[in-house]
Amino acid sequence: MTQPSGPQPPQGVFGAPYDPARQGNPPPSPGAPPPGYGYPPQQPGPYAQPSPRQPGPYGGPQPGHGYPPQPPTVTAPPPGGSGGGGRFKGRTGKVIGAAIALLLLAGGGIWLATSGDGEREPVAGPDAVTTGPGGSSGDGKDEAVARPTADELNAGRKPGEAKVAWLAENGVDLPQYGEETHGPWFAGDVVAKGMYRKLTGYAVADGTEKWSLRLPTDLCASPTAPTADGKIVVAVEDNVSESEADCSVLQMIDLRTGTAGWKKTVDRSDMQDGLSHVAMSISGDTVTFGRDTASTAYRVSDGKELFGKREGVCQPFAFTGGARMIAAVSCQAEPADPDRQQIQEVDPVTGAPKWTYELKPGWTVAHVYSTGPLVVSVKQPEKWAVVVLNDDGTYRSQLASGEEDYGVRCGEESVATGSNLDGCAGVTADAERLYLSTLPVPGAKSLDNEVVAFDLDTGASLWRAPAPSGRLAFPLRMEGGKVLVHVEAAYRKQGETGTLEPSTGAYTTLLKHPASATDTEISLFQAKAAHQDGRTFLLPQRISADQDEEEKAATAVLVFGE
User: Fold this and answer.
1) Each residue's pLDDT tens digit, 276-308
2) Sign of torsion, CA 251 255 258 261?
3) I want to staple 245 with a disulfide (CB 3.0 to 4.6 A). Which of 86, 237, 310, 320 is the partner?
4) Maximum Cα–Cα distance across the chain
5) How far apart are CA 30 and CA 32, in angstroms?
6) What average pLDDT score do residues 469-474 get?
7) Cα dist. 476→72, 188, 392 in Å?
């Protein structure tokens, strides 16, 4: 076997180098690490002494303008330098920890935080509700609920503000506790969403409903994005039972026309398989259906199975979509065994690994923040860390985060608790830097956060950009060489879409949402934002209301444009 170039990890720290010929039979866990590894004495991080908040680059409002052979083994060099700590909060997760410590993973050093302060109550403006204003008569009877139209919202628009291009009501009577939204997905001149037992396609320009597709059972999983030609494969439950339904039926849909294509059922008869969460992705013409004990991939165009369960213990349980298929792999032989996981890049047609990066026992893959460059979130119970890899899977850097609460939104705290491996908001990266959103400062009077940039080669923080006062800013992706940012609306403060200069953090407004639409905007629960061709699309993460009419009238899509 050819050994990777570069420094080799010392034995007993990271365990034996990974041998792909032994895949499915991981090496035994090493003994206790020698002094100096694992949990060293804490050192002050780069943000150990908080400084007073300084005015940030966000100026006053600006007028907006639209807006397989055997795979090679990969190990990492010995750790260098000490990193600070950071804490993480997913959408439904706990805020993780106060005590800061440094931990070394199997392939290199990374920073983390340990728990110590329990859960934090959610912070919201006075008018922030799941579905917005709506009514119940108090006697158990539904009342008609009127929502302002786009024309009514635009009537109060001020100079320099974008307009409400269109909005769409939910229109669906949901189960008692509401439902998650799926999408938005873009296909040509169509933007589509899914919820409960229905998919709907709208004209991007004006919101005209171009098609709707009823599903026989509940929509239970979906990829983050469709194929380049607008096809998607979603998962629905195999029956309508609330207690015995499995998320196991795949349905292909052409989002340009709303036409249903092939349909097939995945065998989930294994007990462990039936209990596991589903993670989906699309890469090229391949759709993956990942779960704890096995994963299956199909060709999107015709439904042909491309690859499935591997031989041996190590099994992929989630994949990223897009240009590179990155897999999270579990080598845990029995449920009671310690977690043993790997990160791999795989061929999207054959599923064969191109390289393997092995984590230290006990650490698991939470999410992939970026595939180019490759940035991966990993965790233990009440600990969180970030590792940056080169394109060939070798170790690149660790991040020095300081004492910080990071507010990345990934649907769930990790792929193991029900989200996809990709698709997180509040984080993006370019070739040189990683951009992370923080949570609001605890105890602060205003509800605002910061975006922090990190050097991917050194792990050092480069700059911090405070969000406009009283609001939260979330990086979405890179666009035109700049960091595209969604600024959430808050109580009496409208949202906006803007960019950050990668080298300095200087902020520029692209679309300043109209103040007249603020109440409608903040009614969207933890809105999912997408920016496409000068328009900003917002969907609530979830819709739930006490009464059917209120639920149906809830805003499901809100679009801003020039």
Assistant:
1) 789 999 999 999 999 988 899 999 999 999 999
2) negative
3) 237
4) 74
5) 7
6) 89
7) 33, 21, 25
